[in-house]
Structure formats: structure tokens, C-alpha cells
Amino acid sequence: MLRARQNDVLIDLTKISSQQLPHLKLTKHFSCPYCGAPVILRQGSKRRAHFAHQTPCRFGEHESESEAHLMSKEILREWLIDCGAKKVEVEYRLPSGNRIADLYFEWDGKAYAFEIQKSMMSPEVFQQRISDYRHARVEVIWIFIGELNRLKTTYRVNRVMRLQKEQPLIHLNWRERKVTIFNQIVWMNQREIEAIRKTFSLDQLTIQQVVEDDQLRVNRRLEDWLALKKDFRCHKFAAYQRKEYALLRLCAPFLINLSLLPSVIGWPIEGAVYTKPLFIWQAYVVLCIMSEYKEQDVFTLSDIQKKLKGLYRLKEGPHCLVGLKCYLDLLVHFGMLKSQFGYFEYVKRPRLYAQLDPYLIEDAQLGERWKQIKDFS
């Protein structure tokens, strides 16, 4: 452990020179910044100077920190101070609960905490930490520092980043002092996400870009998503037309191809619903309803799930039922279906056009309705 408190002052051994260590060893009354128990300063010929507990640490989640974690906290602390944040504190203990924030600061009258994360944790632990911060009325912002693998048009993120789906993903490259913000995150299949990626030098990044209000984020998210829909219609559809034979057979009776899919297809749903990309599995859902049912027919969530699995061999993801229900609810909002007492009624066939331009106009119109749904924004 490289940090300890002494009379409410945080002592950081990474900033103590070898000449200062003998003087520091003469002082006493060091305490653990996590559990508050007494610690002692140790230094030997084989291990670097560090603080050690005299008894086991009572703070259950305390772990030794890596160089990346320590450096990230220091870099972000300096950045917050330079940006004018108030009450910037490292290893800040929340007033309520046994929780210590990596970095605490106040901005525009609100309290925030940076949680810097590299190693994997369970979803239960992740949600518990978020709950602790909400109870303390502190908004937590997760900063991920693990390796980030990038494909050409789709981003494969490290496993720990998959836990954070409510807000944009923020990744810090502490060596290069660069921050990458992933907005408009949608799981295209089991392992990949589609996202709008923007990279900033830390010197050019502002706090407002990290903590911007929800309405600004929603407006930008719609604009970015419409760009993704247009890109699929104009370019990406061709790659799927060479391999999605079952879907092409569904399109044939309606005289459309994958670039002319109805505008109700291709809207972001959280979680890995099916292993196929989002635009493709949603096309199967809509065209299956149009093919298998007549207007005013009634069906259940289980009915459509069985048809997709039995007739079209769609492989389900871990969030299949939840995601499929969310998408059917969105089709209700778009006016294609009605929902009552656990049943869905097919009330209106979506518009089909022979050209691309009317779809782009309708995509924008449905986008304004999509913004009104809190769960999808």
C-alpha cells in the first residue's frame, strides 16, 4: 500500500524521494485510508517502501493498486484542479456507508466521483457500488483503463466496460494522456458494440464534456444514431445480402431488400438479444410478424420468440427475453403493434417504399418519437 493518512493528510510514497524517506520513518501515527486502522512504514532491500497493516484490513474490497491505477488517479486529479473543479480529493470516504471514491470533486453545485477500474468485477458488486454512491447523492463516473481493442467499424471492449451501459463509456490511456468517450453504445451481437467514438487529449477535454446533461446527450445520440442507420442503408447492407439468405427470402414477398427495410427496424436496444447484429435480428422480428400474422391478429412474447428460434434458427443471447420485450414495446410506440394484458396485437403494417430517400425522412421522424421514450434514451 503506497498511501496512508497522517493527521488527515494523505501521504503518497510515489511522491516521496529516497532522501525524504528516513525522516518520514521517524514520524508515527499513520492510518489506512480505507479502514482507518493503524499502519506502519516499511522499507527493505528487496521491496520498495510501503505501508503495511499491523492487523488485517477491515475494508473487504481493499486491494493493492497497480501503477496504472495510481498514475491515472494522479493525472485525473491534476486535470480536475486545472479545470476548476472544487474540493478535489483522492481516496475520499463517503459520509454514509463503507465506500471510498478514487477521486471526489464538486462541479456546478453537484458532487461527483471518479471510479477507476481495470480488473473485472461481478455485476452484483458493480451495482452495489452504484447504489452506494446514489445513497450518498454522489454521481459516479466510471473511468476504464484496461486495454482497448479496436476493429475497423465496430469496437470490441474489455469485459469490465460491458458492465456500464447507462452512461457513455469513458476510457483513459494514462500513458498518452488521452481520453476516449464512447457515445451511442449498442450491442450489435454477443461480443461487439457499435458506438460513436471520440478521442480527446486530456489537455483539450473539459469537465462539461464528461458530465454533460442528459438532454444534450439524447439529442446528440439521435443525430449519431441516424447517421448509423443511413450508413447501414447505403453501405453495410450489401455485406449481409451475401449471407442472410433466410432474411432475403422474408424480404422477397414485400419487394424490398436490406437497404429498404422498414423504418421501425434498426433502433438501439440494450443487451445482447440475439447473436446476429442489431439491424439484422430486428429485421427478422418485424418481417416475421408481417409474414406470420394478419392485421388484428394477437400473439404473445413467447409466440414470437418460438417462431424466431424455430423457423429462422436465431441464436439467443443472454438478454433475449428482456431485449425482445423492449423492442416489441418500441413497435407499440411506433404504432405497428398494440399491447394489452400481456398480448400484442398486429394493428398496422409499416410503410414500404421502393426508393431510399423516403426511408431517410421517415427514420428522422421516428427518431423524434424514439427520443420521447426514457428507457430507450
From TrEMBL:
Residues 65-213 form the Competence protein CoiA nuclease-like domain. Residues 225-340 form the Competence protein CoiA C-terminal domain. Residues 14-57 form the Competence protein CoiA-like N-terminal domain. InterPro entries: CoiA-like_N (IPR057253), CoiA_C (IPR057252), CoiA_nuc (IPR010330). It comes from the Bacteria. Pfam families: CoiA_C, CoiA_N, CoiA_nuc. This is Competence protein CoiA. It comes from Turicibacter faecis. The lineage of its organism: Bacteria, Bacillati, Bacillota, Erysipelotrichia, Erysipelotrichales.
